[in-house]
Amino acid sequence: MSRLLTAVLALSPVMASAQAYEGAVVDLRYRHYEDNSGYDVNSIGGTLDASWMFGRIGVQAGLFLGKDIDSSDDIDLQHTSALAVHLTTDVSDSLRLGAMVSADDIADGIQVYAAEALYLGGPIRVEARLGDTFDNSAPYTLFEVMGSYAIGNALTARAGMHYADFDAAGHYGTLSLGAGYKISDQTEVYADLKRHKNDGGALYSDARGSVISLGVRFDLGGSTSDKTFSYMPLN
After folding, report:
1. Which domain holds residue 168?
2. Which of 9, 131, 172, 187 has the most CB atoms within 10 Å of its CB?
3. Alpha carbons 35 and 37: distance in angstroms, whole number
């Protein structure tokens, strides 16, 4: 986690001085996963995303760092990192489209490309993503949708779904409901409760359970940082 904060401090002056700088967001999260087999794991993670626009064409770069901190089983606690780059275009003031490439070191590592869209209109924000892997020997398809609705100036209702398909190796999906609360113009705290199904394919038994996420989101400024895509590899 300290590496992420160091990166924020190091990059902020550079980003703030760029004329094309649009905005940046830091999202820090605690995650508790459990399933019906009695297994659970606790982890912490964070993302730093910054975006720049050149007219209606732009680029966004994102860094994710995560770490397992505790588990009910005697397992190797994992460290996770991921990098993502998005090429973006604003079709209108309310609709942004993007093309993303991402690489992470989860399991044996996954390299993903995805088409994405973000709608921002009034109290409504909706982000969607459809992706696949570059590695045909390890099939992987991703689909996710996340939405929020602002209630007044501070409270936000949140919902989402995430589905990752690994072909014969099974699939993993979540449905979530949550809420966010702005404690200042730059800071929002949030909580999400997710129900998950983890299909282990032919080799592992299926598991169902819940995921609880508690987080805080910092807006580092800029003109329209609400248009920053919010990809996070662990859901």
Report:
1. 2-227
2. 131
3. 6
